[in-house]
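Request: Have a read of the protein record below and say how the chain folds.
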Amino acid sequence: MAPPFSQVFVTFYSSSGELLSSQVLSNTSPYPVSMYALNEIESELFEVELKPLLFPSNYE
């Protein structure tokens, strides 16, 4: 279930901990964040990190 924020920063890692991709997603987009994450997990990715964008200019 997607967090109750307008945007989240989604990061995907492989099973070895390698950063694969990251993307800013909006809960108002045609595909909900949770469905995007499930599709990526099914693509043999191991870990998904969702964090709210409280400060969009700070992506760490």
About this structure: Residues 7-52 form one domain.
